[in-house]
C-alpha cells in the first residue's frame, strides 16, 4: 500500500470525495425507500450517480498514489455514467409536476452522453481538441437551455408546490455552476497545454462534491419537503 | 496497480462498461421491488445478468491491463450466464401476457446455454471452429425464430397492453442486433484469423452496453409502463 | 493478476461456476422474500449454500491459477457448509407438508457434516483412506435412505400438493446423482492414486453447478408453484 | 496468494469457520426480519457477532498463511466485540420474558468487555499474566453467576413459555462450555509457555463454531419456536 | 500481508475500532428500519458516520502496518465526513421535539465542516498552526454553545419526553468530552512538536469508539425509548 502524507492535498481531496460519496450513496439509497412513490426514481438515480462516483474516484486515487498523475480518462469514465444519470434525475424530478414527452427524455440522455464522449475524444486526441471542445460546449449550452427555457421549466413553474420550484431552482444552479468547471478544465488542458500536477484533480474533486453529493442531497431534501407539503395540504 | 492512459480506448470502454453495469444492476435491483408481482422475475433476471457482467468485465479489464490482450474466454464466461438469463427474462416477460409451456422454457434455456458453450468449444479449438460456428449460428437462429414466429410472439400479440407489445418489439430488436455481433466476432477470430488487439474487446463492450444495460432498462421501463397502464384501466 | 488462456478449461469451469453461483445466490436471496412464509427457510438455506459456494470456488480458482493444482481441501471446505445446508433445506421443504421430529433434523445435520468430515480425514491421510471412504459411503447411503424410505418421504407422499411431490422427486434425484460424484472422486484419488491435473476439478465444478445451482433453483421453483397452487385452491 | 495444502488442518479449520460464520451471518440477518418485534434485537446482535467473526477469522487465517503462526491478538480483537455482543443478546433474550434493570445491562456489558481486555493485557505482557488470568477468571465467573443465579434466570424461570426456558438453558450451556476454552487457552499460553503451532488456533476455531454459530442459530431457533408457541396460544 | 504482533497495541486498537465500527454500522442500519419515522434520519446519519469510520480506520491501519506511522491526514479525512454528520444527527434528534430553522441547520453543517478543514490546514502547514488551532477552537466552542445554550437546547427542554431530554443530555456530553481529544491532539502535534509514534493514534481510536460508536448507539437507544414511551402514552 502507498501511504500518502498529510501535505498531499490531492490525495486528501480524493479521500474526502471517496468517503463523502460513500456517505451520500448510503443516505440516498435509504432515502429512496422513505420518499413518496413518484420521487423514488430521481432519488435512486442520484444514489446510483454517487455510487458510480465511488468507483471512479477510488480508481483515480489509486492512479494518483501510483505516482504518475491522474490520466484525465479516469474522470471521464465516471462522468460518462453520472452526468446522464443526473440529467435524467432532473427530468424525473420535473415530471413529478406534470407530463413530459419521451422525446425530451431521449434528447437529454443522448446529448449528455455525447457531451462527455466528445470531450473525451478531444482530450484523447482522437478528434481535434478545439472542435471537440466547441461541440461539447454546444451540448452543454443545449442542456442549460432545456433546463432554463424548455418544457421542464414550464412544468415546474406551473406546479403548485413551493418546495418543488425552489428545489428545481437550486438543482439547476448546481448544474450550471458545478458543471462549468468541466469545460473550463477541458479548455485548460486542451488549449493552454496544462498538465495535471494534482491541482486539476483537486478542482474536479471539489466540483464532484458539489455535483454528485450536494445535487443528490438536494434532490432528497426536495422530495422530503414536497412530500411533507402535500401531506399537510 | 496498472494505470491506463487517456488514449487507451479499450481500457476506457471496459471501465465505462463496468460502471454502466454497476449502475444498471443497482437500478434494476431496486426496480424489482417497485414493479408489480408478475414483473419481479424478468426485472430480477436482468439485474442478475448485469451483475454477472460486472464480474466478467472487471476480470477482462484486469487481463487487458496485464498487457497480454484479453483471451476471449473472459467474454464467454460472462455470456454463458447472462445470455440464458436474458432469454429467460424475455420468456417471463411474454408470460405476463398469457400461458407458455414449461417445454418452451427448457428449450430456450438449453439452446441459449449450448449456443455459448459450442462457440467457446470452437474458439478454444476443442471442436472444429467452422462446425462450432455453424452450430452456434443454428442455435441463435432457433432463438430468433422462437422470438419472432413462436408461441411467445403469439401471446404478446394477443395481449391487450399496448406497452407490452412495444416493449417486446424493442427487446427482440436489441437481441437481434446486439447479439449479432457475437457470431460476427466469432467468425472473424475463427476464420479470418483476427487476433484481438483491443478493438474486438471494444466492440464486445459496446455490444454488452446494448445487450446488458439497454435490455435490462427496457424491461424495467416496460414493467413500469404496463403497471401504470393497467392501474389506469 | 494471473491471466488464464482460452484453452484452460479448468479455469473456465471455475469462472462459470463462480458467476453461476453468484447469479443463483442473488436470485434465491430475492426469491426468499417472494415466497410464502413456510418456504422462506428452505429457499434461504439454498441461497446461503450458493453464497458459500462463491467463496470456496473463488479460492479454489485462485489456487488453480497459482499453478500448483487445487488441493482437494478447497472443495471440502465448501462442502462442509453447503452439504448440511442442503440436507436441512430438503428437511424444511418436506416439513411444509407435515410434522417432522427434531430428532430427524439432528440426525440429518450431524450425519451430513460427519460424511464430509470423514472423507476429508481420509483425503488428508489423518485416517486410513479406505476406512474413511467406507464410513463416508455409509453416511451417504443413510441420507439416501432417509430421503427415499424415511419419514420425509412419507410426509411428502401424503401431501395433497402435486407440485410439492414432483419438486421433492427432482430434488432427491439431484442429490442422488449429483452427490454420487463426490464419493467417486474420493475413490479415484484415494485408491486409484489419481492426482488432480484439473479434470477432477472440472468434474467437481459440473457437479457443483448441478448440486448448488440446479438444486436451489428447483427449491425456489417448487416454492413458487406450490404457492400458486394453494392460492388457486 | 498462498495456497494451503490438504494436510494443513489449521488452515482448513480457519476456512470452515470463515464460511460457517458467513452462512450464519446471512441466515441471522434474514432471520431478524422474520421473527417477532421483541426478538429482532437478540437475533440482530448474534448476526453482528458472527459478522465480526468473519473479519477476525479472515485476518487470523491470512496471518497463519503468512507462515508465522497466529499472534493471539487476532483472536482477542474479534472477541472484544463478539463476547459483549453475545452477553447483551442473552440479556435481551431474557428481557422478552420480563423487565430487567439498566444497571444489569451495564454491568454485563462492562464486565464482558473488561474480561477480554484484561486477558489481552496479560497475553501482551502489559500486565502480569497471572494477575490478568485471575482477574479474567473472576469476570467470567461473575457472568456465569448472573446467568445461573441472577435476575435473568429468575425472569426466564417465571416465564410461561416452555421454549424460552429450554432455549435459555441451552444458550447458557453453550456459553459455559464454549467460553471455558478461552481461559484454558489463556492459561496454557500464559503459564505453561505454550507456543501456538496451529493446534491452539484449531481449538479456538472449534470454540468459535460453537460460540458464534451454534449460539446465534440457537437464539434464532428459540425466537421462531417462541413466536409459533405464542401464535398458537 | 503484514502480520502485527500481540504487543502492537496501536494495531490492536485500530482493529478493535474497525470491527466495532462495523458492528455499529450494521446495528444502526438495521435499527433505522425499526424506529419511528421521525427517528430514521438521525439513526441513519449515525450509521453512515460509523460506515465512513470503517473506511478511514481501515486505511489508517494499513498506513500503520506499512511501518511509517499514521499521517494525521488519515484521521482528518474520516472526521471531515463523520463530524458534520453527527452534528446534523443531533440537529434532527432535537427537531423531533419541535421546529428548528433551516438557518441553524446550515450554520451547524458549515461550522463543523470548517472546523475539521481549518485544523487540517494547520496540521498540513498550509496555514499557520497557531492560527488554525485557534480558529478550530472557536468553531468547536460555537458548536458547544449551540448545543448547551442555543435553540436546540430550548426545544429539547420544552419537550414532554423524559427519555429525549436524557438522551440529549448524554449525547451532548459525549460530544463535549469525546471531541475534546481532537483539539488536544491538534495542540500536541502542532505546538509541542509531538510526533505520532502510535500512542496518538491509540488515543484517537479510543475517542472514535466513544464518538462514533457510543454516540450512534445512544441515538438508537433514545429512539427506541422515546418510541416506546409515546406508544405507552
From TrEMBL, chains A, B, C, D, E:
SMART domains: Bac_rhodopsin (SM01021). It is found in: Membrane. It holds the Pfam family Bac_rhodopsin. GO terms for cellular component: membrane. The chain crosses the membrane at residues 12-34, 41-60, 72-92, 104-122, 128-149, 169-189, 209-227. It is a multi-pass membrane protein. The keyword Membrane applies. InterPro entries: Arc/bac/fun_rhodopsins (IPR001425). Keywords: Membrane, Transmembrane, Transmembrane helix. Its main location: membrane. Belongs to the archaeal/bacterial/fungal opsin family. This is Bacteriorhodopsin. It comes from Rhizobium terricola.
Amino acid at each position: 500500500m502507498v501511504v500518502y502524507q498529510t501535505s498531499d492535498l490531492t490525495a486528501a481531496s480524493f479521500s474526502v470525495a471517496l468517503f463523502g460519496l460513500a456517505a451520500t450513496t448510503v443516505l440516498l439509497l435509504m432515502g429512496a425507500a422513505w420518499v413518496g412513490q413518484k420521487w423514488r426514481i430521481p432519488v435512486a438515480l442520484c444514489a446510483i450517480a454517487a455510487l458510480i462516483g465511488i468507483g471512479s474516484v477510488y480508481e483515480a486515487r489509486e492512479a494518483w498514489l501510483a505516482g504518475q498523475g491522474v490520466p484525465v480518462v479516469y474522470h471521464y469514465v465516471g462522468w460518462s455514467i453520472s452526468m446522464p444519470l443526473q440529467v435524467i434525475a432532473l427530468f424525473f424530478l420535473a415530471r413529478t409536476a406534470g407530463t413530459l414527452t419521451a422525446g425530451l427524455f431521449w434528447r437529454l440522455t443522448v446529448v449528455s452522453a455525447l457531451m462527455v464522449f466528445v470531450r473525451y475524444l478531444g482530450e484523447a486526441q482522437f478528434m481535434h481538441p478545439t472542435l471537440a471542445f466547441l461541440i461539447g460546449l454546444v451540448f452543454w449550452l443545449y442542456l442549460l437551455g432545456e433546463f432554463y427555457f424548455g418544457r421542464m421549466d414550464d412544468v415546474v413553474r406551473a406546479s403548485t408546490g413551493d418546495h418543488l420550484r425552489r428545489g428545481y431552482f437550486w438543482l439547476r444552479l448546481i448544474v450550471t455552476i458545478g458543471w462549468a468547471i468541466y469545460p473550463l478544465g477541458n479548455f485548460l488542458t486542451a488549449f493552454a497545454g496544462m498538465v495535471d500536477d494534482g491541482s486539476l484533480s483537486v478542482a474536479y474533486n471539489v466540483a464532484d462534491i458539489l455535483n454528485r453529493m450536494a445535487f443528490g442531497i438536494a434532490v432528497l431534501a426536495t422530495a422530503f419537503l414536497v412530500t411533507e407539503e402535500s401531506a399537510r395540504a
